[in-house]
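re the bet — no i am not wrong, look at it urself. input seq straight from the record:
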Amino acid sequence: MEKAIISNDTISTVNESYKVTGMTCAACAISVESYLKPLEGIAKVSVNYPDQSVTIAHDSSLISIETIREKVNEIGYDILTGDAKETEKEFEEIEVKRLSTLKSKLIFAAVFSIPVFVIAMFLKGKLPFENWIMLILSIPVIFWSGSEFFVIAWKRFKHFSANMDTLVALSTGVAFLFSLFNTVNPQYFLSKGLTPHVYYESAVMIITFILLGRYFEEKAKSKTSSAIKKLMGLKPKQVTAIRNGEEVIISYDEILKGEMIVLKPGDRVAVDGKVKRGVSFIDESMITGEPIPVEKTKGSKVFAGTINQKGSLKIIATEIGNNTLLSHIIQLVKQAQSSKPKIQKLADKVAGIFVPVVILISLTAFGIWYFLGPNPSFTYAILILITVLIIACPCALGLATPTALMVGIGKGAEQGILIKDAQVLETAYKVDTLILDKTGTITEGKPEVTDVIWEENVDASLFEKKLAAIESQSEHPIAESIVNYLKQLKTEVISTDSFESITGKGAKSIIDNIEHFVGNESLMKENHIEISNELSQKAANLKAEAKTVVYFSVGAKVEGIIAVADKVKESAISALQNIQQMGIEVYMLTGDNEQTAKVISDQVGIKHFKANLMPADKGNFVKELQQQGKVVAMAGDGINDSHALAQADVGIAMGSGTDIAMESAGITLMNSDLSQISKAIMLSKLTMKTIKQNLFWAFIYNTIAIPIAAGVLYPAFGFLLNPMVAGAAMSMSSISVVSNSLRLKKRSIN
């Protein structure tokens, strides 16, 4: 719970945020919101379905939080009050338990429903006491697996509201009770010349299918906070601090602003701070996304969540706790996840209108047949009532979306496109703007040697051995790239007479009594090393291509240059051309410098790019585009992308990236191939087309079938729809929806 108190002379308004339990769809969020808004003393209420929370601004002198909680309980939900950490823990336990219970109910329903379905569809009239067998098998499905539908429907009925649960409860309840009556007392309809049909299979299969869709939805929702938890995990539990002149181990929560923290090799930085003593390289990819660790010396800034490499540092904590850059990233991801638009499924929208209309039609038909129908008028009126409610059953409506989504998600998985949140399939086809991180998304994400140029008439093999000997002793990340390159050439490492690391510039070594330098141009100039005009020109060309150039000198002359860069992925250029041909505008965002960003964007054909960005800048840029009415997809692979991935309408994580990026995104591309982005968008288009077809046929079915079930054809043609035929028609509508969804498996998304 988060609390803020706003007060003046006459009123004290408390603004509180609570976790809500029991919400199963976006319609639930709207119900909580609309129920609380009219209450006296409540100034503002906002329910966040993705975050499962409600923010309430209320006058505590007029309405207490306990009263608000009671009101929420009345419509089947609950809000958790108390200490923030305790309620968060309680909420997680409730959600885990709920998902587990839902899974058990689904399995239980399927085990009992399938035999009922088989008996009703294939063994009808072939088994003794078949109606009683189906009754016994149906009872646990109705009264345990489907109990929640009836509980919520009753609570909504008391407050004159309805949703999909109401429709499920109404249709399955009526079908079960009618079947129960005909099982226990079949003589009633037989005596009137009518067949006592039963509809147990309809009742139990509706519940099973709706539970299946709900389970997948709940499973996706349970992962919403995983990115936050993993970001929180970047904070070390313990750190080494210097107190009273001694090193002591303290917990993360005990760190004081201004005290000295010791960073040993491999330690994760716990605070934002400045280096007081030592030299090391720190992996800051979580902030910048760049693969090369950054050298840190006295006065350099360090940030929480980054990782120290091989050296040791002593830093002064300048920002701690919630004020660190990492904490700001966590907060931004939270806000981005909770600000996702509330998507209410079409079935839930229609249910609020459809349920009262169906009830009204069934009751009107009952009244007409009772007062104006032929004898036995009551029997006909009851049959008409039952037929209308059975044929109006929401099975096809309930299956329309989840079946298509499940097939779409499965097809994506076959193509290496893992879809974590079904919502992205409902959104991706609308994408008109794609934002790409540079490092690890457009490029490979690791520095590699791209060019090695030697002066003419030199012994390249000997110099490679010398280069390997020097760089193998260096801790610099670029040196590691050069060593890996030379290992691929199977270069022998010879011994050196001495080695000296020169901070920020390179290294010096004595081999066979000759000075050798490896490093940047500045190191060469300081030591008066000669660089030929030809090598200087080639080095300038390499730098213009945004490559890092390393100079290698023997004696007083540079004998070779080595270029290191993060290579563009082979598939990037063609993939981006395809995406742009789909009418999607592409932007590249990077924490790297302007020159490198321009070179890469030109290389792959991207017109728009932004450089030198922090994580918050990326997220804010996504928000800016969304405010312009654009539907934005963001593809990235790092922790620094997590805010933007969560903020985007569609977040796409590269499979080679961090777990946190994958949790923040709705789609993960397992092979990190950019061509998969266009496939994911095409998959979304096909899935949504299938959903719309399913909904169309489901609605057409109800539009035509309900009037016929009510007896509209009887005056002219003497035709009445048999309840058994109504049940079969309802089943056929469901089968048509499932069959149409399965067609998606055969469609090409290339």
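see?? DSSP finds 27 helices and 27 strands in the chain. told u. also The first strand starts at residue 2 and ends at 7. so pay up
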